[in-house]
Amino acid sequence: MALPPKRVLTQDRLRTAVQNLLLETDWTEITVQDVSSNAGVSIGTFYNYYDSKDEALADVRACLSALIKKDLNSLLVTQSQVECRISLLLKYFVNILNAKPSWANYFYRAESFSERLDGGLVALLEPLVLEGMLSNKGHSQNAKITAFFIENGFFPLLKQYHVNGTSVPEEDATQMVVLALLAMGLSGDRLAQASALVCPVTPIAALPQSIFELEKAQAGHA
């Protein structure tokens, strides 16, 4: 089997280096020299691939966002009711904090979901909130505002648990979902049943993730 081009392997080392550093410290404290050193390449080589460290982060974020969204799609498709999908979406990120320490560091060292997930949680929530509006499940008048409201309440809570080094109890996760669904205008049995759903721990591999190996696996190569 032919070896992948050197350029592919070098970029994979740079992407892995970005992940390694993100798991250890804040992005604002990381330099291009840190990324290059961790990847075992020169600074000049780094600039052959990226114009800046923020461009490198954007590249890694896009790759890992695709992985997260694929994992979420396989989870959310198990539910037909939109409120149940919203519940599992939120509890998925609770489970990452509780059971996936490297992913928890990746997400909750950031200042917002959008720093680590393309489009932030809003990009995932807004179409679900809109679906709820169109099916008359809830009384929200603006899907984007509602999605922003939910994300901006949800992320700081999870970040604080992470900073404190504590897990989120199931009853707390359920209460977060209740508040999110109330923001949509849901109430009664639908709200109670959806918020009580238990989200299974997802099978995402630990970070750092070789993007090259990930893309090769997704393409169906051995």
Automatic annotation (TrEMBL):
GO terms for molecular function: DNA binding. PROSITE patterns: HTH_TETR_2. Coiled coil: none annotated. Residues 8-68 form the HTH tetR-type domain. Keywords: DNA-binding. It comes from the Bacteria. Residues 31-50 bind DNA. Signal peptide: none annotated. This is Bacterial regulatory proteins, tetR family. The lineage of its organism: Bacteria, Pseudomonadati, Pseudomonadota, Gammaproteobacteria, Oceanospirillales.
